[in-house]
Amino acid sequence: MQFEDLHIFEISSVIRYNDEKAQYPMKNPGRLHCGFILNEKGVEYYHFKDKEITVTPGTLLFIPKGEKYSIDMDDEVNVSLCVNFECFEKELPRPFKVAFDKPSHLRSLFVEAELLWKKKKVGFRDDCLSILHKVIGGIKRENFKGLHPANFAKIKPAADYLEEHFADSDFKISRLYELSEL
User: Fold this and answer.
1) DSSP H helical segments within the chain, as ranges?
2) Is the CB of residue 8 less than 8 Å from the CB of residue 64?
């Protein structure tokens, strides 16, 4: 399951955390909602059952609903913004992080969601959901940064061949290599 395939139907909350070292280590016995957490200040170490993720300022972390984890930190203070949400899928992606080269636009989206959530004016949940979709669009762009459309043109013949012939009994991976101009 890729996070891009999630069908998000509701924002549960938008929370700013201002945590001090004395509050750590912290244990979460099972996350109540899916969440994107944007670290603004401090370094945190998330310990999951199958991996550890270090989160630094400007890093965005996804944690699925139900995930058990603990957090440690080195700094005296940690500041982060979290958008919690619900989605229809039962099978969710594993936790992951995205480090942005220029996180200021991402931060402005999270701050906008935080303000909307605090004011709770008519339509605020829908507005926050719209912002979350902008965040997801930013993640997609960050993941594909540096990939130029001309590079995709090189593999298009192989992709077309794969689509047409994947079930053929004589299908060969070597043919994909030949067609991809690599």
Assistant:
1) 104-119, 124-143, 149-165, 173-179
2) no
